[in-house]
Amino acid sequence: MTTVSEKLLTRTEETGAPGPADPPDRAAPLLSLRDVRISGGSGGREIVHGVSFDLTPGNVVGIVGESGSGKTLTCRAALGILPPRFEVTGGSIEIDGTDISALSPARWTALRGATISAVFQDPASYLNPSLRIGKQIAEVVRVKKGLGRREARERVLGLLRAVQLRDPELVHDQYPFELSGGMLQRVLVAAAIAADPRILIADEATTALDVTVQAEILDLLADLRERAGLALVVVSHDLAVVAQLCDEVLVMRDGGVVEQGPTRRVLDDPRHDYTRLLISEHEQYGLEKFLAPKALAPKEEA
Ligand SMILES: Nc1ncnc2c1ncn2[C@@H]1O[C@H](COP(=O)(O)OP(=O)(O)OP(=O)(O)O)[C@@H](O)[C@H]1O
Ligand SMILES: [Mg+2]
C-alpha cells in the first residue's frame, strides 16, 4: 500500500488526480463515533451529550460551535487523551474498526501517530524550544518508522517540503523561536503526518494565525486530503474555516450537536437557530467565497 507520505513526497502534477481506491462515501469508516458522551470535571457531570459521525478515507468532517461546547473534548476522546478525571461515559468510538475502549496503552502508542494524529492550536507549546526542528521530527520518524539517522533526515526534509516550507534545509536546522507562527504550524503538520496517519484531527489549528496564513494552512490540509487520501476532522469556532474544507459539518452547542449534515445543506438551508446565527455572523465576510471550488496551488510559506 502506498503511504500518505509516499504520495506526498512524490508530487504528481496531473489535475484530476485519482482518489483513494474506494469511493470515499462507500469505504468503511476510519473513525466512527456513536452517541459519544463525556463526563468529568469538578462536578463529574456529563459535558458532551452524544456525538456521532463517520469519517471515511479522504473525507473531512467539521465540528463548529461556540467556546466550551465540547469540540476539543470530543477530539481528545477520539485520540484517547482526555484530561484527568474526564471519561467517555456512553456510546462508542472505533478507529479503523477497533473499539478504543478496549485498547491497551501499548496499542494506543502504536495507533497514535501511525493511524490517528492531531494538530492543535499554539504550536510553540508542542515543540521543544531547545531542540532543532529537524531533530524533533526525526525523533517521530525514527521511533514510529524505525528509520536510521540518514534515512530519517531525508524523510524529514521531504516532510518539510511536503508542508511547503520554502527552505527545508534551513528550517531543518532552526530552533522553534526562529520561525513564524505559520511556519511553526506547518512544522507541526509535518510532525503529525510523519508516521503516515490515515486520520488527522486539526483542532483550531489555524485559529492563532492571521487570515492569510490561516488560508494557506487550510489549503495545505485540503492538499493532504486530495493527494494522500487523508481523512480529516477539522475543528473551529469559525464557520468559514469549516465551510472551506468539510464534506460534513456538526454544529455543537453546550455539549450537544444541534445540527449535522452535508456542509452545503447545512449552510444553504440551516435548520437550527444557532446555525443561522453562526451564518449571519459571517454574512459580512461573504461565506460564498469559501464555498467556491478551489484550485489547489502550491502556496508560499508564511
Ligand atoms: N481540562 C479541563 N478541566 C476542566 N474542565 C474542562 C477541561 N477541558 C474542558 N473542560 C470543560 O469542558 C467543556 C468543553 O470544553 P472543550 O474544551 O471541549 O470546549 P471547546 O468547544 O473545544 O471550546 P473552545 O472553542 O474554547 O476550544 C467546557 O465547559 C470546559 O470548561
Ligand atoms: Mg477547543
What features would you describe in this structure?
Helix content is 37%, strand content 22%. It has twelve helices and ten strands. It has helices at residues 4-9, 71-79, 105-111, 133-145, 149-162, 168-172, 181-193, 211-228, 239-245, 263-268, 273-283, 288-291, and strands at 31-40, 45-55, 60-65, 87-95, 98-99, 116-120, 199-203, 231-236, 248-253, 256-262. A six-stranded mixed sheet has the order 6-7-8-3-9-10, sandwiched between helices. Strands 2-1-4-5 form a four-stranded antiparallel sheet, covered by helices on one side. The radius of gyration is 19 Å and the shape is globular. The model is unreliable at 7-22 and 292-302 (pLDDT under 50). The structure holds adenosine-5'-triphosphate (ATP) and magnesium ion. Magnesium ion (MG) binds at residues 71-72, 203-204.
Helix vs. strand class: alpha/beta
Biggest sheet, strands in spatial order? 6-7-8-3-9-10
Query: How large is the share of residues in beta strands?
Result: 15-25%
Average pLDDT rating: 85
Query: Portion of residues in helices?
Result: 25-40%
Q: What is the rounded distance between the termini?
A: 33 Å
How would you spell out the order of helices and strands? HEEEHEEHEHHHHEHEHEEHHH
Spans of 5+ residues with little confidence (pLDDT < 50)? 7-22, 292-302
Bound molecules: adenosine-5'-triphosphate, magnesium ion
Count of helix runs: 12
